[in-house]
Amino acid sequence: MKKQIQSIAGIAVFVAAAGISTSVVAADAAKSAAGSDGANRYTQALITKMDVNRDGKVTKAEFMKFVEAQFDFLDKDKSGQLDTSEIMNKEYFSRPANMD
């Protein structure tokens, strides 16, 4: 069960990270194709999104709340399960960076 939760959390983080801001990644990629500045900004955007109390760190509770919100957003049919069509939701990947 713990391994399944870890797998789900890993997928959710990947999906959430991809949905944070494709524009940030695209802009950074164009600006610094060979450097790591884009990855650093992308990571910072993700941390900022999860860091509810704005202390610069993400607690397990903040992380889990973020992942749960991403899961709930993707679970369009509210079945409590995600299928391929829900995970690959184009609306999710094209949403603005500031959308919660």
Layout of helices and strands, plus pairs?
Layout lengths: L1 H19 L1 H10 L5 H14 L9 H15 L9 H4 L2 H5 L6
Features:
mainly alpha; 100 residues
Helix content class: 55-70%
Largest beta sheet, briefly?
none
Q: Quaternary state, please? A: single chain
| Amount of beta strand | under 5%
Shape: flat
Structural domain count: 1
Short structural summary:
The protein has 100 residues and is an all-alpha fold.
Structure description:
- There is one protein chain.
- By secondary structure, this protein is mainly alpha-helical.
- The protein has one domain (2-94).
- Helices cover 67% and strands 0% of the residues.
- It contains six helices and no strands.
- The radius of gyration is 14 Å and the shape is flat.
- The protein starts with a helix and ends in a 6-residue tail after the last helix.
